[in-house]
Specification:
Elements lengths: L1 H11 L4 H25 L6 H16 L4 H18 L2 H16 L6 H18 L2 H17 L3 H18 L2 H17 L3 H18 L2 H17 L3 H20 L8 H16 L3 H17 L4 H17 L3 H18 L2 H17 L3 H18 L2 H41 L1 H77 L8 H28 L2 H6 L1 H16 L2 E7 L7 H22 L3 E8 L3 E8 L6 H6 L4 H12 L3 E6 L5 E8 L5
Parallel strand pairs: 1-2
Antiparallel strand pairs: 2-3, 3-5, 4-5
Helix pairs in contact: 2-3, 3-4, 3-5, 4-5, 5-6, 5-7, 6-7, 7-8, 8-9, 8-19, 9-10, 9-11, 10-11, 11-12, 11-13, 12-13, 13-14, 13-15, 14-15, 15-16, 15-17, 16-17, 17-18, 20-21, 20-26, 23-24, 24-26
Length: 672
């Protein structure tokens, strides 16, 4: 029956491979488009903080192409821009990107990677950015595992677990319990490894995480294999495979497709130890077939070669075994994975012993012994034991504290019984007080609800007023231009038709004065009409209207204004155009009145789903939070109300004496 299940699995899974290839090709095209888009964005005149973010994203994107020169170039550029922006967060992200570039994704300079990660960790811990702390811990732990530095890995894992438990982060609690199981397994402490892996499995089941359940089953299979419970080990790996197969066929995104090959090689290892060599080889063959579709990371691939080499050796396919083992050793050295290097030496000495090459067998046995001693020595054992003792002691202290708390609660119950009768009397008096407080609380909640509704109505009223004002401005401007403007133009035309030669000198002077007054009236009318509703906004659109506005402000104020607009090939919604025009006008007026600036940059970018506006000046800056909290700055309040009406958001970065940057994002009407 088991063989039949295997054959069915091997028949069904290839049917999905073409679909998987198509999906991965689409993902690849999306990554290329993302890379090209980010490179195009870099050509825009962006603030240093945004350049740091774009460079970091480009660095991560080039990882998908294994272009490590570009990965490093953009990671270092990200750090350079982050330092210029004086933003701790951007500096932390740039340092973390460099840590990944040097450590986990190709460059393999673990010492330098650890330096960058520790700098990023210091900033993350100082700023309390818990999400980034866990990401950085993960990068550092990978380095420790490559170097088999389990003492430091144990210490950092305990710190991460304590942090996760403190804030109740279930996802990270599950993650760190899994890592503790891994560390104990690698140290040969199988009972503790099983304890934490069982906890990992239980927590994964509680949250319904099928991917982690499959992973926990594989991990427990490893523990049982180390305990020589080989049949139990095989059952757990088979259960993991059945679950992975269902998730894979349903295309569950949380499942990384390379887990299919990973689980097949776990099955190969278990059947190999049971002496089922043909089944073991069948699993490795199917595993390598998956790797053609879903390439594995180098960490796992090195181990796959070692498993395949060991199986080939036992099947007496010695040349194939030699090829697999040397590929595994070469890859292990490349990624500097100390345990895999040790295991490769061990398997090679067994292979050469089988080939009766005593010198080569002795050579690899010597390397194996030296490598093994470098990984596990008395000093590292003592360090790990001390950390385990500290960890267990902390857990016992928690248990003791819990028991003491429970004991105090029991004593408290006895005391309550002694005072029960007196408490009943007091309770009647308190009930009246409580009823009054509850009623007061009810009234307060009612007032808060009323105030909330009132604020919402006020906001809706403001938006309606703004909309009516904009429409009325447009109507008045049109009426002035079409009505009064036409009358004045006609009057001038009629007056001009008079024959001035027949007029006396005195009347001639009056005639010319009247024509001049009519010209001034027409110009003034155009000026008033333009202020009410710019003609360029209606005819040419937002970028042209803003350019005209900013040129005029620059000419009369002496302020140097650099304006750029990108992506406005077509027109946008009229309401959005008018609101953005008024918002930019209000921001520039504030700069002219209060900022004492010499230079202003205004940038307008139309993306597929939103419009980005950036206004940056080199003025004196201001305390934005203080002004908003004290309800100062009517102009800013009007801007915020307009943006709420447009469902937009505004980010203000201002430091007194260092200028101001305001970034606004507004969704385009009709975009999804």
């Amino acid at each position: 029956m088991k063989h039949l299940c295997v054959l069915i699995i091997l028949f069904i899974i290839p049917i999905t491979l073409k679909s998987q290839r198509d999906d991965e090709a689409r993902v690849r095209r999306m990554i290329v488009l993302q890379r090209d888009s980010l490179k195009k964005v870099q050509t825009f005149p962006l603030p240093d903080s945004q350049r740091a973010t774009v460079s970091a994203e480009l660095s991560n994107t080039f990882l998908s192409f294994s272009d490590f020169d570009s990965v490093l170039y953009y990671a270092e550029s990200s750090l350079e821009f982050a330092v210029k922006s004086r933003s701790d967060r951007h500096k932390m992200l740039a340092l973390s990107t460099l840590g990944n570039a040097y450590g986990n994704f190709g460059l393999r300079d673990y010492k330098k990677a650890l330096t960058y990660f520790n700098e990023a960790r210091q900033i993350a811990e100082q700023t309390g950015d818990v999400k980034e702390i866990h990401k950085i811990y993960s990068g550092i732990l990978n380095l420790y595992f490559y170097n088999s530095d389990f003492a430091n890995a144990m210490r950092l894992t305990n710190e991460g677990l304590s942090l996760a438990e403190k804030i109740g982060d279930t996802t990270q609690i599950i993650h760190y319990n899994n890592l503790l199981g891994f560390i104990f397994l690698r140290q040969g402490n199988l009972s503790r490894a099983e304890e934490f892996y069982q906890l990992y499995l239980s927590l994964a089941k509680e949250v319904g995480d099928s991917v982690r359940i499959a992973d926990a089953l594989n991990n427990l299979g490893e523990v049982y294999s180390a305990q020589n419970l080989l049949q139990k080990s095989l059952e757990h790996h088979m259960n993991s495979w059945q679950l992975c197969k269902r998730l894979y066929l349903r295309k569950v995104q949380a499942l990384n497709p390379d887990r299919m090959a990973f689980t097949l090689f776990k099955l190969a290892n278990s059947t190999n130890k049971l002496g089922l060599l043909n089944e073991a080889k069948q699993y490795t063959t199917e595993g390598f077939n998956y790797l053609k579709i879903h390439p594995a990371n180098e960490y796992d691939l090195a181990w796959y070669y070692l498993i395949a080499g060991d199986i080939s050796r036992q099947l007496n396919e010695l040349e194939m075994a030699k090829s697999y083992l040397h590929r595994g050793l070469s890859l292990s050295k490349k990624i500097k994975h100390q345990e895999d290097i040790r295991d490769a030496y061990d398997l090679l000495q067994q292979l050469h012993a089988r080939l009766n090459r005593k010198d080569s067998a002795y050579f690899y046995l010597t390397l194996f012994t030296k490598q093994k001693d470098s990984i596990v020595n008395e000093k590292s054992k003592a360090q790990i034991q001390q950390i385990i003792s500290e960890f267990d002691l902390a857990k016992k202290d928690q248990q003791i504290a819990l028991l003491n708390e429970q004991q105090k609660l029991s004593e408290s119950e006895l005391s309550k019984q002694h005072f029960l009768r007196n408490a009943l009397l007091i309770s009647f008096a308190l009930m009246g007080v409580i009823a009054y407080l509850l009623y007061s609380r009810y009234q307060l909640r009612q007032r808060n609800a009323f105030q909330k509704e009132l604020n919402q109505k006020q906001n809706e009223l403001f938006n309606a007023i703004v909309s009516v004002q904009d429409n009325e401005r447009k109507r008045v401007a049109q009426d002035l231009h079409d009505g009064l403007g036409s009358i004045l133009s006609t009057a001038k035309l009629k007056l001009s038709s008079l024959e001035s030669e027949r007029l006396s000198p005195e009347d001639e002077l009056k005639y010319q004065t009247s024509l001049n007054l009519l010209d001034e009236a027409v110009q003034e009318l155009r000026h008033v009409s333009h202020n009410i509703m710019p003609a360029s906004l209606s005819r040419l659109g937002l970028p042209a209207a803003l350019q005209n506005l900013l040129d005029k402000i620059s000419s009369y104020s002496g302020l140097k204004i650099d304006f750029k607009a990108y992506g406005f090939e077509g027109r946008i919604d009229e309401t959005t155009e008018m609101s953005l025009y008024r918002v930019v006008l209000e921001l520039i007026n504030n700069i002219v009145k209060h900022a004492h600036a010499n230079q202003v940059t205004v940038q307008l970018i139309k993306h597929a789903q939103y419009i980005n506006v950036m206004v940056e000046d080199d003025g004196c800056g201001f305390n934005y939070k203080e002004i908003i909290s004290q309800n100062r700055g009517i102009g800013l309040s009007n801007i915020i109300s307009r943006l709420e009406f447009l469902k937009g958001k505004m980010d203000v970065d201002s430091t007194e004496g260092l200028g101001t940057t305001i970034v606004i994002d507004i969704p385009i009407v009709g975009s999804s």
